[in-house]
Amino acid sequence: MSDHSFVFSEKPIRIDRGEGVFLHASDGTRYLDMGASYACTPAGHGHPEVVGRTTEAMEELFYVQASYPHDERDRLYTALAETAPGDVDYTWLCNSGTEANEAALKFARSATGRSKIVATTRGFHGRTMGALACTWKDKYKKPFEPLIGDVEFVPYGDVEAMLEAVDRETAGVILEPLQGEGGINPASARYLQAVRVATATSGAALIMDEIQTGLGRTGSFWASDRKLVVPDILTTAKGLANGLPIGATLCREWVAEGAGPHGSTFSGGPTICAAANATIDVIHDEGLHENAERVGDYMRAELDERIGEEIRDIRGDGLMVGLEVKRGANRMLRDLALNHQLLALPAGRTVVRLLPPLTLTTEEADMAVNAITEVVTG
Ligand SMILES: *Cc1c(COP(=O)(O)O)cnc(C)c1O
């Protein structure tokens, strides 16, 4: 069931066209897309460069298995390594976020010869058995247990608890630099750097899940950059191919040695790699990370001025924004969608989450601020 079932069940919104930060429904209504389908379309809908280069690649060679080297795949390896914090020795391509994390957990285990994973409260890492075991909320896990064992949870942001949990049995620590699904919860640079030191000292792999925070979302290409942390493994997915399914696990040399016999049939086909290369180029060429920082700061400041007193909290970095509201998030999202033609997302019961395309202008941000203000004060 989608988190959006509250809208779909009462008044289905059937989307059939997209343009920039707007989605057009079949009944002719135009919506401002402030959710970007969970950060999956950083370059906006129908970006001509992404569409053009993907279409061209498709016509050239729709698909070929990864054992044949291909220019688009090589370019993507290079592009990801060039943007990544620290040296990337090996990148594994897959088809989703949970798979990228699943690979990260496997590589951490085999590179260290250990099995324990430390994860954080309110973290979200995906829905396959390993990634799910590292996900906090029982709601996602309970019906499927037992999951993989040997996962210890520590409170997100608590340095002491992390230092205590990470020991010589620990294969890896997995966490988000800014939690998305868990409520847009920021971590300080100091905390993340302490986790970096703890993992390095114990010989465990630091797995930074940048599946939601990456690709310019928080104002730098990766959130790890802002926090001055170099993880051993960085995972990305969601917006990497602007809406086509892809994931990647970026590894430093010592963890790359743990990759062993891991693999996937659809690892990095030419079409998907072309879409990802075009997306990364658009982010660089149009400075979308800088735009995210600028428009994100502007939007949060405006929201603070207009409704700061009416809601509990406004938080986040760049264009990853959480509004903790007094009445339920779903009620507000429904009101925004049906009465103001604005689509956003929940992050738990009380947080409205904004993850618009990173092309959002200040004028478009104003539209969102006006709609949100009307709903909150109305
Ligand atoms: C969405 C998400 C995932 C899972 O990605 P899927 O593509 O849905 O498997 C993992 N981690 C984070 C931080 C996410 O936001």
What does this structure look like?
The protein has 378 residues and is α/β, with parallel strands linked by helices. The chain folds into two domains: 123 residues, Alpha-Beta Complex (Aspartate Aminotransferase, domain 1), CATH 3.90.1150.10; 238 residues, Aspartate Aminotransferase, domain 2 (3-Layer(aba) Sandwich), CATH 3.40.640.10. 41% of the residues lie in helices and 18% in strands. The chain is built from 15 helices and 17 strands. It has a seven-stranded mixed β-sheet with strand order 4-12-11-10-7-5-6, with helices on both faces. Strand 10, helix 10 and strand 11 form a beta-alpha-beta unit. The two termini are 30 Å apart. 53% of the residues are buried. The mean pLDDT is 96. Bound molecules: pyridoxal-5'-phosphate. The site of pyridoxal-5'-phosphate (PLP) has 15 residues, from helix 5.
Note the topology:
Elements: H1 5-10, E1 15-19, E2 22-25, E3 30-33, H2 36-39, H3 48-60, H4 71-83, E4 90-94, H5 97-112, E5 116-120, H6 129-133, H7 138-141, E6 151-154, H8 159-165, E7 170-175, E8 178-179, E9 185-186, H9 189-202, E10 205-209, H10 223-226, E11 233-236, E12 247-251, H11 253-256, H12 270-285, H13 288-307, E13 313-317, E14 320-324, H14 329-340, E15 342-343, E16 345-346, E17 351-354, H15 362-377
Parallel strand pairs: 3-15, 5-6, 5-7, 7-10, 10-11
Antiparallel strand pairs: 1-2, 2-3, 4-12, 8-9, 11-12, 13-14, 14-17, 16-17
Helix pairs in contact: 3-12, 4-12, 13-15, 14-15
The structure holds pyridoxal-5'-phosphate.
